Amino acid sequence: MDQNNVLIDIKRVSKAFPGVLALDQVNLCLRGGEVHGLMGENGAGKSTLIKVLTGLYPRDTGEILFEGEPFSLSSPQEAADHGLSTLYQEINLIPALSVAENIYIGREPMRFGRIDWKQINGDASLAIRKLDLDIDVTQPVSSYSVAIQQLVAITRALEISAKVLILDEPTSSLDLAEVAQLFKVIRKLKEDGIGILFVTHFIDQVYEITDRITVLRNGAFIGEYETQKLPRIELIAHMLGKDPETFSLEQTAGKTQQEKTKTGQTLLDVKQLERKGSMMAFDLTINKGEVLGLAGLLGSGRTEIARLLFGIDRSHKGTILLDGEETVISSPRKAISHLFAFCPENRKEEGIIEDLTVRENIILALQARQGIFRPLSGRRQSEIADKYIELLDIKTPSDSQAVKNLSGGNQQKVIIARWLATEPRFLILDEPTRGIDVGAKAEIQKLILGLSEDGLAILFISSELEEVIACCDRIAVLRDRKILSELSGEAIEETNIMQVIASKDVNQ
Amino acid sequence: MSQVQWLRSENFQRMLWPLMALVGILLFNFFFTPGFFHIEIKDGRFFGSLVDIANRAAPVMLLAIGMTLVFATGGVDLSVGAVMAISGAIAATVIRPDYVKGVLEYGEVQSLFLVLSIPLFFSLLAGLWNGLLVAVIGIQPIIATLILMVAGRGIAQLITQGQIVVFIHEPFQYIGSGFLFGLPFPIILVLLTFTVTYLLTRRTGLGLFIEAIGANSIASRFMGIRERMITLSVYIFSGFCAGLAGLIVCADIKAADANNAGLFLELDAIAAVIIGGTMWGGRFTVFGSIVGTLIIQSLTTTILTRGVAPEVTLVFKAFVIILVALIQSEKFRQLFSNRMAGEKVRTS
Ligand SMILES: Nc1ncnc2c1ncn2[C@@H]1O[C@H](COP(=O)(O)OP(=O)(O)OP(=O)(O)O)[C@@H](O)[C@H]1O
Ligand SMILES: [Mg+2]
Q: What are the backbone angles phi and psi of residue A87, rounded to the nearest 5°?
């Protein structure tokens, strides 16, 4: 690699927010033709560094050189003009606009002084096909799932011809096939000499795609490493700030928990539930004290099942038996009154309320169930919030911080906290560990298993197969909006699940 | 919360600028308008410029209280001025039912209960109409309430048949020009409405729910908050506040003027809410809106007492509104601090 080919050189950059030193003398050196991993726990300062680099936040001190020249941006627009293309962590698409419009917004091709829609739509379908995605680009993005929205946002970033491509957790909602496709594109860009900064919490992906890694911890610069020369366990140790020895012990301790035998009573018995156009008729039983996983590819109907069970979408046919009694769940409010809880995958649109504080976000669902006239006292609110901030290790200067000021992973923890605070009987988790770092992920998985041991029924959805396998007692495998089969006990294995997903449907 | 924490807290920061603007205007008058702070007690009643400002601002304060909640849910109620006109028109018609038929002598004196309750009932109905359009049918609030803003004034004119209905009704006139505990009755009404609103929103879960709905209605629904019910109620409440304001104006001038009652006051109310620091969809402060209204009114009074032509008043008003709104905007402050930070980096 050419030592002189330094595109971006960040030197001793610091950035403080009230109560938080988000970046403390951070260095980062990005070269052309490399994929550079930026790693660190939730709240380490990765996204902040990217926002400082691209002019979204002003830096407090330090220096940034772009191709050797001092470089200071005051807006993301300027960043684009300089050849920096960025995908921020929180997907910034405009829900009401079409996929094509979202990809080309701000730089629409013109023809005779007018926007050339035909070309936009044509180009957009071509662009999106590079990621192996085949969707109708004239539909509004809001009509697509989070994973597809993420792919659209990636496409938008890729379509800006740039010298530097910055991707902040682009793969958080994607499954293996899409990641592989994305990496193919990234490798090609790398050959073209583009410098790519890549943030992720997936250790496998870092080792697959990056050349070098910069690690941050609590806003401090820990070091820069050649990926090939850095053993995984050491990388994790650098991120968490723990001795590799103690850490590897912990890992194995977490694993032994998996083996458990449960014979819980049935909580939910779903019979031939169907919603036309979104989910074909399916049966499902969910037992107390059991984690039931849903596995399947993008668009296979996992989220649709969750939405049906939580009353967000109405079913057209079929029945739900709750404790053996037929129950109509016609709205989230009804579901909550039966002590259901639903942690949605779309954190920004359906989960957090950005302007409210961490405390308010945590107690809101509980307060909603209690109703308007039985307010939780200020003291009680703080008690609950502080309990979960500690339990889930949410990084925030105080419980009265606005949630939008938390890092992505910590926002995710707030949503989990909100639903745990309602002490549900049935917990639906749709991608609960999205954007959560390795250490915390293990903690949350442990927490989930612990809760199920106490009798909580859990429906667990994740595009990460490993996680599903680690957490679930039974797994329903889906494809094309249909449940194909159910695996349990010994049969829960990656190869088995993949086989079911790939198998040809006998009926067709 | 410790005192330092409170000074740093979001709520206080939000209130800081409006309060400073108000203090600024009052200080200006302290130095340049003789006798501005003079308050006289006559027959156990307070008189003076300050009381006068608060009294004049009372109708808009009521509108602003209702508007604050509507604003917090991410809506706006353009119809409040028209609802004021309707409410006044109905009150006058209840007092003199045959006026529009040309019968000029008074019949029996109507009971105060009817004179108050009938207009308020129809104001609630107006609010319900707005609420249904917004919360149930899902029309954009601006458009939904525009309907009644335009049609409402027409309805008021139909009620009065285009005439200015004058009346005499001592008990009712008390609403507009009476005194209680030494203060003009409209001020008492505002204090009462404010207190009830405050208790209802901040001593229950309602305020938080309103803010949650405004900031993210989908997430709120997923949490089991009754977002439709609450949105609907908020518009009904705004209608009620407008009706009350309409009664004050009508009782004060002893006439129902369908053309001019409450004309453009929706704009003052919206301005007051924005100046006061309520977010469009999110955090609200009813107290801030009261301060906002006082800023607008004291500014108007100041300009008038300085002998500036009334036409220029509007320009001044616009200027101050823009200024305070800019200071309120986080973006603007950020831009400002960015510039400062930029300077620092460059010079270092
Ligand atoms: N606008 C802001 N105001 C106040 N604090 C902020 C703001 N943005 C970030 N922070 C704080 O700065 C720290 C770093 O946040 P950042 O988003 O950079 O973390 P991250 O490394 O991207 O984490 P994650 O993996 O969870 O996305 C966090 O403690 C966060 O609370
Ligand atoms: Mg981040």
A: -110, 110
Q: Which residues contact B113 (CB under 8 A, 6 or more apart)?
A: none
CA-based nearest residue in chain B for residue A70: B346
Same domain, residue pair A82 and A168: yes
Picking from A18, A350, A374, the nearest residue to B219 by CB comes out as A350
Summary mean pLDDT of chain A: 86
Taking residue A180's Cβ as centre, other Cβ atoms within 10 Å add up to: 12
Residue A367: both structure tokens together:
């307060």
- Confidence class for position A415, pLDDT limits 50, 70, 90: very high
CB contact under 8 A, B223 and A352: no
Q: pTM for the complete prediction?
A: 0.88
For chain B, the residue count is 348
Say whether both A230 and A100 belong to one domain: yes
pLDDT in tens, B279-312: 888 889 999 999 999 988 888 888 877 777 777 7
Looking up residue A297, the CATH number of its domain turns out to be 3.40.50.300
Same domain, yes or no: A203 and A254: no
Residue numbers in A near B342 (CB within 8 A): 58, 72, 74
User: What is chain A's Cα-based Rg?
Assistant: 23
Question: How many A from CA of B278 to the centre of ligand 2?
Answer: 29
Same domain, A124 and A192: yes
* Within a domain: A229: yes
pLDDT digits (tens, 9 = 90+) for A244-294: 666 554 444 444 444 454 557 888 888 888 898 888 889 999 998 899 999
* Domain extent for A189: 6-247
**Tokens at A253, concatenated:** 């301790």
For residue B100, the CA-to-ligand 2 centroid distance in Å is 69
pLDDT at residue B8, rounded to an integer = 57
Separation in Å, CA of A380 to nearest CA in chain B: 13
Q: Is B255 exposed, middle or buried (0-12, 13-18, 19+ CB in 10 A)?
A: middle
- Token pair 């200027």 is found at B319
Gap between the terminal Cα atoms of chain A = 52
Residue A2 has pLDDT above 60, yes or no: no
CB B23: neighbour CB atoms within 10 A?
A: 12
